[in-house]
Amino acid sequence: MRKYSVFAVAREAMRGHRGWEAQWTSPEPRKEYDVIIIGAGGHGLGTAYYLAKEHGITNIAVLEKGWLGGGNTGRNTTIIRSNYLYDESAGIYDHALKLWDNLSQDLNYNVMYSARGVMMLSHNIHDQQVFKRHIHANRLNGIDNEWLTPEQAKEFCPPLDISRTARYPINGAALQRRGGTARHDAVAWGYARAAADRGVHIIQNCEVTGLRRHANGAIAGVETNRGYIGAKKVGVVAAGHTSVLMEMADVRMPLVSYPLQALVSEPVKPIFPCVVMSNTVHAYISQSDKGELVIGAGTDQYSSYSQTGGLQIITHTLDAICELFPIFRRMKMMRSWGGIVDVTPDRSPILAKTPVPGLYVNCGWGTGGFKATPGSANVFAHTIANDAPHRINAPFTLERFRTGRLIDEAAAAAVAH
Amino acid sequence: MLLIYCPYCEEERSELEFRQAGDAHIARPTNITELTDEEFEAFFFLRDNVKGLTYERWRHLNGCGRFFNAARDTVSDKFVTTYKAGLPKPDISTLRPATEATVETYEATESNAK
């Protein structure tokens, strides 16, 4: 792999840009791999990358039903934060946030991580109490999060309407300054390029249709539309389709899949300096480097695999956006889309071994998985390589729904489920 | 927006009036205090999360308020049929043309719209 640098840009500028090589190759699948990862989104590609980089396992294939990064990695609102309530969540999300810091350098790929601050608006006394509780809990875990008065919130985000007569009055906000955004596609592409450079096979348009097991129950390999591929270990990182894949190994999951929608406006000049979220009226908004306002809506009310979603869900969010930021009332929305998110009963992810030897699962990120991409991939690689969880993901087991040791982040998630 | 047929009101109403209410045809345990942890987990937390035809309970919340059952395709979101609570699973093969394949994408759904 030729390194990207300012010198490479200058060199190619002289040569008419004929020297750029493909970022990853598309090899024919081998007969067998040490590890197969199902799902080439950020979490799956990152897992392959960290397996190769930190655990010395390079005989890996990442299988993808569609195209690389075309699932929820390419469909989210790119918000990054780690101000979760419980110690377990704080551990994994802040692990991710620390990795975001140097991810561009680590991958030699500009993922455009921008710590522009994530501000969560408080509209009533209940919000205020919940946010202050979060702030105190975060501080005990060494995570930055601070309380702002409405005036301070307005100073941090000038387009915000804090007037007394606003439809949704604001009585304060919680701000995590280290939070921000990153370029979602670049995360998938950067991990893919860095993983391929270490010998990982990335195989797109390869749908897994079955999981084959030995007589003793252990995983033997995967059936795909390109034939059978053997594997010593298989990691399922398939977001909304996890239940479908795990059913092939006779494992029932505590998951329900819902469509989650997002939309972008026409591009405009820089106007919006940070990320703003409101759980109570349900809106998230930031501005991409291209200039589009990136707006996140809620999940649909009913389970579905349709990758679309009800129009009333996004109009509800736009109603809230227009009330909070009256200057956006005449903006035109350009595109909207849906992704299928897998939601657990306690709104916390599952990164764990399964009852099937050699089968591992990373799922249940629900509506907020993008922010965790590097941390999730890092500890999941550890779990697969050592056949034992990392200290950070040890609480995120499948068994917690039997033992009752839930990590109940329902209140901390951005979405009022 | 979907139009859903309420078998009690006997008319199609907007999806906004309805709420999904979990899987249908589940026999809820009558001896919940005697269940093992595994049995409770299977009943309370684990879900089939079917991709394709599924049977589920819906409630006409902002209408008659009653629960009924529906057979729905979770890929196209198409309601195959709705029926009153307590009735057995209907024979879907008589209601749905067997040739109609489920579609994966929004674009495919759109072009399939009749």
Give the number of DSSP strands of chain A: 18
- Count of structural domains of chain A: 2
Structural class of chain A: alpha/beta
The proportion of residues forming helix of chain A, as a percent range, comes to 25-40%
Q: Structural class per helix/strand content of chain B? A: alpha+beta
Q: How would you spell out the order of helices and strands of chain B?
A: EEEHEEEH
Query: What's the CATH architecture name of the largest domain in chain A?
Result: 3-Layer(bba) Sandwich
Enter the CATH topology name of chain B.
Folate-binding fold
Instruction: Give me the count of strands of chain B.
Output: 6
Q: Mind describing the biggest β-sheet of chain B?
A: 4 strands, antiparallel
Count helical runs of chain B.
Answer: 2
Oligomeric description of these chains: heterodimer
- The CATH homologous superfamily name of the largest domain in chain A equals FAD/NAD(P)-binding domain
- Average pLDDT for all residues of chain A: 95
* Domains of chain B, number: 1
Low-confidence stretches of chain A: none
CATH topology of the largest domain in chain A: FAD/NAD(P)-binding domain
Count, helices of chain A: 10
Secondary structure topology:
The complex is a heterodimer of chains A (417) and B (114).
Chain A: H1 6-14, E1 32-38, H2 42-55, E2 60-63, E3 79-80, H3 87-107, E4 118-122, H4 125-140, E5 146-148, H5 150-156, E6 172-176, E7 180-181, H6 184-197, E8 201-203, E9 208-213, E10 219-224, E11 227-236, H7 242-247, E12 256-265, E13 275-278, E14 283-287, E15 293-299, H8 311-324, E16 333-343, E17 350-353, E18 359-363, H9 373-386, H10 400-403
Parallel strand pairs in A: 1-2, 1-11, 2-8, 4-13, 11-18
Antiparallel strand pairs in A: 3-7, 4-6, 5-6, 9-10, 10-11, 12-15, 12-16, 13-14, 14-15, 17-18
Helix pairs in contact in A: 2-6, 2-9, 3-9
Chain B: E1 3-6, E2 11-14, E3 19-23, H1 37-44, E4 53-59, E5 67-73, E6 79-84, H2 106-112
Antiparallel strand pairs in B: 1-2, 3-4, 4-5, 5-6
